[in-house]
Specification:
Elements (H helix, E strand, L loop, with lengths): L29 H10 L6 E2 L3 E2 L5 H14 L4 E6 L4 H6 L7 H17 L3 E4 L4 E5 L13 E3 L5 H10 L2 E2 L8 H14 L6 E5 L5 H9 L4 E3 L7 H18 L3
Parallel strand pairs: 1-3, 2-3, 3-6, 6-7, 7-8, 8-9
Antiparallel strand pairs: 4-5
Helix pairs in contact: 1-2, 2-4
Length: 248
């Protein structure tokens, strides 16, 4: 939502990280931007990467996601995350150590609003009386919920409990070992394999093919916030790569 200029928290919450890119302070609102994209496309998937769920009101957020899914005729991929910027969270009244619990309750409450004609919730962080809320999402029971977060028991526990996918960033972990751990946790809970998306992979056929062999179904390639004469040729290269791989 904003970047406090004190910058006490390093980028990504990682000690000795590189300076935070300046464009972090200049991003558009996700749902306004994606609604604009929905209006001029018909097949493009519309993903958030990521929505800081703990910093948002879950009742409004449920309506925003469902409205976007309706406007786009079911093209939303709801990428979510815990967040790392302690100062930003504090300005939203969210304690850093509470962010995981708040995210969990917010998502569970949103699922109630998406799937019930009369929804209510009574948790530690979220409470609302029996209520109506429309529209409901086009995708049933709701758009895929994809958690972007560091590999670990708590993250994997949340994914198995209330998410549909995992979206790690390439380079932060040995992802191939972690994928096996996640899928074992899903199997132990009686769930089908978790859908896998990776972000930040190199746009090279061998790299993408290796992820595909590991069960990754989607690779997100970066687009810089630059002028069209830089971005459009990059998109052309990505399209050629997609053709080479025979993907969609």
């Amino acid at each position: 939502s904003h970047i406090p200029v004190s910058r006490r928290t390093p980028w990504g919450g990682v000690k000795d990280a590189s300076p935070l890119p300046e464009y972090y302070a200049r991003t558009h609102d996700q749902f306004v931007a994606l609604a604009a994209a929905a209006a001029v496309t018909t097949t493009l998937k519309l993903g958030t990467g990521i929505t800081l769920v703990a910093q948002r009101d879950p009742i409004w957020l449920a309506k925003q996601v469902a409205s976007l899914d309706t406007i786009s005729n079911g093209r939303v991929l709801f990428g979510i995350g815990y967040g790392w910027n302690k100062e930003e969270m504090a300005d939203h009244g969210v304690g850093y150590l509470a962010r995981r619990a708040i995210l969990r309750e917010n998502i569970l409450a949103m699922k109630e609003l998406w799937t019930r004609d009369v929804a209510s919730f009574d948790g530690e962080h979220v409470r609302f009386e029996p209520s109506w809320q429309w529209p409901k999402p086009v995708q049933k029971p709701h758009p895929p919920i994809i958690l972007g977060g560091a590999a670990g028991p708590r993250t994997f526990g949340d994914i198995v409990e209330f998410c549909d996918g995992w979206m790690p960033i390439v380079g932060r972990h040995d992802l191939f070992d972690k994928i096996d751990v996640l899928q074992e946790a899903a199997a132990a809970a009686g769930r089908d394999p978790i859908e896998l998306t990776v972000s930040g992979a190199k746009p090279e056929p061998a790299v993408i093919e290796r992820f595909a062999e590991a069960g990754v179904s989607r690779v997100v390639l970066g687009i810089p916030p630059r002028a069209a004469d830089d971005v459009l040729p990059r998109l052309d290269r990505y399209a050629a790569l997609l053709d080479e791989l025979g993907g969609t």
